[in-house]
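Deliverable D5.2: sample structural annotation.
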Amino acid sequence: MSGALARVRLAFAGLLIVLLTACVPMRVKMHTATPAAQDAREAALASRTHWTLDAHIAVSTDRDSNSGELDWRQAGESYVFTVRGPITGKTLKLTGDAQHAVLEGVDARPSEDSDVQRLLRERIGWDVPLASLRAWVRGLRAQGTPAQLQYNEQDLPALIEQDGWKIEYRDWFSDRTPALPRIVFASHGTTRVKMAIETWSFDE
């Protein structure tokens, strides 16, 4: 088996895990101890703003769907968000910070905008709030707006509802301190983002 074919099959296997996990019902409970546990997680992660994750990602809307291998590098407000398609080999690369974003891989020349959400929506049809997703992917509430949480039996978030989005957590790296999400589903209207995270790393 060629290396390229092996990578394609591994990518499809990872995405299949995500899709199969969607069929598993969430086990949710609520009690007074869990908000304190979440507050402690958020406090512990607040200062750890330099991190990298590798994941399988699938994004779908009522018009289109895309999937690939994600490499997300965050350094404070700055980010490099790279998605490589498993079959076509096409690469989308998004770089920027809170004031400016650049998208490469869609047109012959890079596209730029001061609003990353608008850039993603207009150029590739992804209406995804990247700043909020940065918090949600770590199992945290995004800052600035109210959020509702439900918890699993390990006192970890099973569901965050915020700004019209539902973020479901189907599995965790519970051996990490604090625990970090392994499988994340985010949905809003017809937009679906599914991530199966393979690795987390932090620059201390």
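Annotation notes: DSSP finds four helices and eleven strands in the chain. Confidence is low (pLDDT under 50) at residues 1-26.
The annotation will be released with the project's public dataset once the embargo ends.
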